[in-house]
Amino acid sequence: MSDVESMWRTLAPLGHTSSGYRRRPYDAAETEMRAWFVEEAQARGLVVEGDGLGNLVAWWGPDDAPAVLTGSHLDSVPDGGAFDGPLGVVSALGAVDLLRERGVAPVKRLGVSVFAEEEGSRFGIACLGSRLVTGSLTWERARELRDAEGRALPDVLAASGLDGVPMGLDGVEAFVELHVEQGRGLVDLDAPVGMAACIWPHGRWRFDFTGEPNHAGTTRMEDRADPMLTYAVTALSAAKQARLTGQRATFGRVAVEPNSTNGIPSRVTAWLDARCATDAELERLVAVISEQAAARAERDGTWVMVTAESVSPSVDFPADLAARLGPGLPVLPTQAGHDAGVLAAAGIPTAMMFVRNPTGVSHSPEEHAEMADCLAGVDALADALERLVAPGEGDDA
């Protein structure tokens, strides 16, 4: 059994439930996974550094040299799959093993990174750890974030012995993230590994629908100001607009007050996830959905307020870097957000690699990758990292 297979066997039970994986940031399962990472890194003689957010980097190579980062994240969405995030971390450690087997002597520092709260499943902002590290999100804003139980981010961090101070990325010259593909592009291309061309612009918007609470039985239908109806029509309208334009719009999270079976709600809060091929199309799609929500609210006698909680512009990964690090590999876009997109937007030369997902399903227990494809991904990642940290003739130093 390879080290990669052994690592997967160790990780498989962590956070696993009957309905999928629950590796919420700073909870027991995710904390146990970070402890696993530290143990694996130290067993390889790597020097582990952490920051006040739970971000981790395990270093190999000369201390005073420029740095190259690889890695991904360990947290999951509720009831998620096994591969989204951990595949990139396991593959990065496996790539280090493979480079050592090849006798590679890095002239640059290689860091295997784990970024915290990538999914945004606890505090509502995706890639929270990398956003704070790069400065694209300020601590002043982050400190106000609260989870579903009302716990503020600083308090959750403090309970984990963390102070919220991010690490720096000075001296980092490149970042390479390997990830399970979250679609069927590589299946259709009959390829085990590919490179990312770009990340679609995407974001999360909170829709607050308010109305008049009343009795479900005694209130005539024509006398109601029911925010649930306004929300329902808005969700249907969003799906229609996305289908018409070939984009993505999803209301995947809803909170209802007072959440009573025999009562008309006073408030419905719903979160829209929207993704489009271009920034202009994203702005247009959200504007149309918001306008239709407002028009429906006027008709229903309700009110709606739309708040942008997190918006990420489109990211184009350098084509020349992808060609150098993954020569001959297919190149395809992704509609999913990643830490790689955050680092790329911060000006760090970045590449992404995908491993084929035969189900095409992600954020679900059905997410999968065959071990043969995972090992092919480790090989491809090791090749790419070797070109960056130990360049030979014809490679850029």
UniProtKB/TrEMBL annotation:
Organism: Nocardioides fonticola
InterPro entries referenced in this protein's UniProt entry, alphabetically: Amidase_Cbmase, Bact_exopeptidase_dim_dom, Peptidase_M20
Alphabetically ordered keywords of this record: Hydrolase
Matches recorded under PANTHER family: ALLANTOATE AMIDOHYDROLASE, ALLANTOATE DEIMINASE-RELATED
Keyword Electron transport appears in the UniProt entry: no
Gene3D superfamilies linked to this entry: 3.30.70.360, Zn peptidases
The organism's place on the tree of life at top rank: Bacteria
Protein name per the record: Allantoate amidohydrolase
UniProt family annotation: Belongs to the peptidase M20 family.
